[in-house]
Design a protein that fits this description.
Elements (H helix, E strand, L loop, with lengths): L21 E7 L4 E5 L5 E13 L6 E3 L5 E2 L5 E16 L8 E6 L2 E8 L5
C-alpha cells in the first residue's frame, strides 16, 4: 500500500490511467477537507479514522468507517472531511477518467493544490 503524503503539490499523480488503476494514500488531520473536482468513479477507502463525504447535487451524505469503500457517483464537486485523523486511499479504477483536480483545505492554512490532472481533448 502506498505511504501517506503530506499536503504538498503532487501534479500528475493519476496521470497514467490507461494500463492500470491508480491509487494514492493520503493522511488527513481532523477537520481537513479534500475537494475532489469531477472525480466520478473514484473510490475512497479510509484505512483508519472516519470520513464524511458529500457530493454536489447529492441527496445524501455518507460516513465511512475504516475498511468501508465509497465510489463517487456524480461529476462536480465532492467534499471529503476527516472527523478525526485518518488515512484515506484514493483509487481511480481502470477505464475511469482521472478527477479534474484534488485540493486539500485546512482550517489553519490556505488551500493547497494536491493534484492537477491533464485535460483530455
Amino acid at each position: 500500500m502506498p505511504s501517506p503524503t503530506s499536503a504538498q503539490s503532487k501534479p500528475g499523480i493519476f496521470a497514467s490511467l490507461v494500463a492500470a488503476s491508480a491509487t494514492h494514500a493520503l493522511a488527513l488531520h481532523r477537520g481537513e477537507l479534500l475537494c475532489i473536482y469531477d472525480g466520478e468513479g473514484m473510490r475512497l477507502t479510509p484505512v483508519c479514522g472516519v470520513l464524511w463525504i458529500t457530493e454536489q447535487d447529492g441527496a445524501n451524505d455518507t460516513v465511512l468507517l475504516p475498511g468501508e469503500t465509497y465510489q463517487i457517483q456524480k461529476p462536480g464537486l465532492a467534499l471529503v472531511q476527516a472527523h478525526r485523523s485518518a488515512q484515506v486511499v484514493m483509487e481511480v479504477p481502470v477505464g475511469t477518467p482521472a478527477p479534474g483536480r484534488v485540493d486539500l483545505v485546512s482550517c489553519s492554512e490556505p488551500a493547497t493544490r494536491l493534484m492537477t490532472f491533464p485535460q483530455c481533448a
